[in-house]
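Order emerges. One example.
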Amino acid sequence: MEKVIEVKNLVKEYKSFKALDDISFEVCKGEIVGLLGPNGSGKSTTINCILALLDFKEGSIKIFGKEMSPDNYEVKQEIGVVFQEVAVFEELTVYENIDYFCGLYVSDKSIREKFIMDAIKLVHLEDFVNFRPKQLSGGLLRRLNIACGIAHKPKLIFLDEPTVAVDPQSRNNILDGIRTLRDNGATIIYTTHYMEEVEILCDRIIILDKGHVIASGTSDELKELVNIEEKVTVEVNDLDLKYVDNIKKFKNVDSVVYSNRVLSVVYKKGKNNLVELIDYFRKENVKYDKIFSERPTLNDVFLELTGKELRD
């Protein structure tokens, strides 16, 4: 497949601190790639290096087969960036904001008008073209922010937490719009802390931690990397902690957490784990409301690979 981004042996240092330590990865045309990692893992530094907003000590970055540099305006013309912080002009209307940002790339007025309307339709802002930002809800502002970043029809799009703090309806609208962008030929780099979005949206995932690429692949491929076979969740009131301690001693159990009336039991391997747990509750006369078993989620995989300690 055609390579849109090629990052090879990238090293970025801040004095004695290595923010990126010899990372390499590729992104192919038409992919939605999730770039994930805990706070301080190197995600923002990686993106800023790719965009030539930061210089770096070693390595190379190519976009569309060309070396990326601060003055490579031919490549930059084909890139759209939507940062997490909403960046629009309060004194301009929705239409005027999109027109301004699109005009940075498209000088022909007739072409620009079509591009603007395409962007407005993509994020469903048709009823708000004459509104100013302060009149918009948080979800509408997010959609305006996206429209401003993609109106010039870039071939490569960076989306940083585009659905943060929005309602479910706006989130679904934004995710549908991202799929449409991909279906229309765009390649997308997607960063988020919402793992469920990554599972349903991204074709491939790259996980960074402490300046290294620690895993990459599809959601299913990443799940195969960690030794988690099954996760059993039980809704149970006032569970005595002695039962939690006993369950931890089961042969195939990796971890047990009881919090807010929910018992979570993670198994590394084995069969009939659910039956074993149900039999134990029956024997001990433990009453529970619901119990179900599931394969590990991407969130489970992420925590397994990056650790469960809090990050700043």
Q: What stands out?
A: The two ends are 38 Å apart (CA to CA). The chain has two domains: 3-224, 227-295. The chain is about 35% helix and 30% strand. The domain at 227-295 is CATH 3.30.70.100 (Alpha-Beta Plaits).
